[in-house]
Write a structure and sequence with these properties.
With about 600 residues, this protein is of the alpha+beta class. The protein has 25 helices and 7 strands. The strands form 2 sheets. A 5-stranded antiparallel beta sheet has the order 4-3-2-1-5, with helices on one face. A two-stranded antiparallel ribbon has the order 6-7. Helix 17 packs parallel to helix 20 and helix 20 packs across helix 21. The radius of gyration is 29 Å and the shape is globular. The N terminus is likely disordered.
């Protein structure tokens, strides 16, 4: 490997490690629309003490996103007419690439949160931030903010306030946001809005829209310039690399590789280019920086995909057209209008090979209906899961999976694998195994963000681990084959190997500590499985996994092997490739 490759790999690994796969903080900006009037006057005016009339916005990727009468907008954080927020609360972190988030926002902008859908009490800015925070971080905004409209409606003059707000919304569609808080605490009777007031607000709004349009245009130009600069740098780097290679060949004709001088020149070139990139990024917009990071991440992912151990997946085992037709027959006369549309969307996505954009907002509810409605036959769930196992092989399935971050419909069903009939467990394990086909969906299976199910804390990585262990230790050979595949795919994941030397210093619950615990749990399942007589193919996958786990958890896993057994040498001589993996395990047992 050349110095160029080494420096490049170290640079990207450090960047990915520090950024935790382009991790971005998700913050909630909280504004008091009453400008302090609520805290001092609410008891007197509406008969109940409230601290503020809350407007919220989500800040992520260096932009502030909010929803109002004219739809979804964004700006630099804290630069709206409301000024600086009264409070800033950390919602969590997101690992979503910026382009996926942008696609999501664009979808909301033309559907659920389109212009004209705003309602101050029932569909407002806080409904928007609740939706987006769940999508980004898997948790919602504070309950006291969401409950505020209901609190106001339940006050002695709640009905009057509701009527007043509806009147305001219908007459002044483009009023600036902070007037709402003032109206809620206005004790005067409803009055007709004057033409001058409307003209003033329209002028303000027009000026603000022009400003936004100019800023968006400026952002667009900046992005184009940034892309052009990156292309120039790549070209320059390539030329310098080729020049360095020619110089090294000329200076060292006796050796098989470049000279030390050429190595030094090449490494200096790489470092200077990296420094230039880092220096230039400080002048870029936050969204530009994240797009640049995402582009670099995609390059890194492509490189990783080329060099990674290929996952074990199950292709061409399901006749998806016949499964879809069978599912359609089983559901005939049992679907409402919305669910019938979802069936059509499924056909577009899986049969006609359209993108995941074909799946609407209700599709996951449709999936949940089939998975959890016990009035439907078990065969219905088997057909759906077979179809989903094919969908898992598509590179854009991640967009569907991210829609499930709030309800966890799919992963809750997977968590209960031991409660499902055997015929449903099989396609479920195949679905999980096939999600390792693409880097993005396999990363999704490793998420550590927790939620509660059956009064237990769980996460995607815990669910994946449970499915793998249950399948491997099943009495069904077909289940064991898929369980071995999932464990192999987990063991070969790059993220499982990051910074393993630092894990002992990390607090419980950190991402690397989680992977240590997973390695131990899967090792115990493998050792139990080895008490039988597995076929060579599954033995190789499992022994390879065991060798990887000895590297991930270099102390606990070897101790478990020595304490529990059986000795890996029990399987020596079955095949050359199995013997190679046994040697890798034995190195860690010495």
């Amino acid at each position: 490997m050349s110095i160029f490759s080494i420096f490049t790999r170290v640079f990207f690994l450090n960047k990915m490690e520090n950024a935790e796969d382009v991790r971005a903080a998700v913050e909630l900006y909280i504004y008091d629309l009453s400008k302090g009037m609520a805290a001092t006057m609410s008891e007197l005016v509406i008969g109940r003490q409230i601290e503020g009339i809350w407007h919220t916005a989500i800040v992520v990727y260096g932009r502030e996103y909010y929803f109002g009468p004219i739809g979804i907008q964004s700006s630099k954080p804290g630069s709206t007419v409301l000024g600086k927020p009264n409070k800033v609360e950390k919602i969590g972190d997101t690992y979503l690439p910026y382009t996926i988030f942008w696609e999501y926002i664009e979808g909301l902008r033309t559907s659920k949160f389109a212009r004209g859908t705003y309602n101050l009490l029932s569909h407002n800015c806080n409904c928007f931030t609740e939706e987006v925070s769940h999508f980004l971080a898997g948790k919602g905004i504070p309950k006291y903010i969401l409950d505020l409209p209901e609190e106001i409606v339940q006050t002695p003059i709640g009905k009057f306030v509701t009527t007043l707000i509806e009147s305001l919304s219908s007459n002044v569609k483009e009023a600036v946001l902070y007037t709402v808080g003032q109206v809620l605490l206005d004790t005067s009777k409803p009055r007709e809005v004057s033409p001058e007031y409307e003209l003033l607000n329209k002028a303000i709004e027009e000026a603000r829209l022009n400003s936004i349009a100019l800023e968006e245009r400026r952002n667009e130009l900046n992005e184009k310039l940034a892309k052009k600069d990156r292309k120039k740098k790549k070209k320059k780097k390539k030329e310098k690399k080729q020049k360095g290679s020619r110089d090294s060949t000329a200076n060292d004709t006796t050796s098989t590789g470049p000279s030390n001088c050429a190595y030094m020149a090449e490494s200096e070139t790489v470092l200077s280019d990296m420094q230039a990139t880092i220096g230039d990024s400080t002048d870029m917009l936050p969204s530009d920086r994240f797009m640049q990071m995402e582009e670099e991440e995609q390059m890194e992912q492509e490189e990783r995909k080329r060099h990674r151990d290929p996952p074990i997946v199950f292709k061409d085992l399901v006749d998806v057209k016949s499964e879809y037709q069978a599912l359609s027959n089983l559901l005939e006369g049992k679907l409402n209008e919305e669910e019938a549309v979802c069936m059509q969307e499924l056909e577009q996505y899986i049969i006609e090979n359209e993108g995941s954009w074909a799946l609407g907002d209700n599709f996951l509810n449709f999936v949940g209906r089939i998975l959890y409605d016990k009035s439907l036959s078990s065969d219905t769930r088997v057909k759906l899961l077979n179809i989903l196992s094919v969908a898992a092989l598509k590179d854009d399935v991640i967009l569907l999976l991210h829609q499930d971050r709030r309800e966890h419909i799919i992963m809750n069903y997977a968590f209960d694998i031991d409660r499902h009939p055997q015929e449903e467990q099989f396609p479920l394990t195949q679905f999980i195994a096939n999600m390792f086909e693409n880097l993005s969906s396999s990363e999704w299976l490793l998420y550590i963000s927790e939620w509660q199910h059956q009064n237990q804390n769980t996460s995607n990585i815990r669910v994946t681990t449970k499915v793998a262990v249950h399948s491997l230790l099943s009495n069904s050979v077909d289940m064991q084959i898929r369980g071995a595949a999932i464990i192999h795919n987990l063991a070969c994941k790059e993220k499982m190997h990051k910074s393993k030397n630092l894990r002992r210093l990390l607090p419980k619950g950190s991402i690397s500590k989680v992977f240590d615990d997973v390695a131990v749990e899967l090792t115990m399942a493998l050792l139990q499985y080895f008490n039988g007589n597995p076929a060579e193919e599954q033995l190789f996958a499992c022994m390879k996994s065991l060798a990887r786990f000895t590297q991930i958890s270099g102390q606990d896993v070897p101790q478990l092997i020595q304490m529990i057994g059986p000795e890996p040498n029990k399987f020596r001589g079955i095949s050359e490739r199995v013997d190679e993996q046994i040697d890798q395990v034995n190195k860690k047992l010495r």
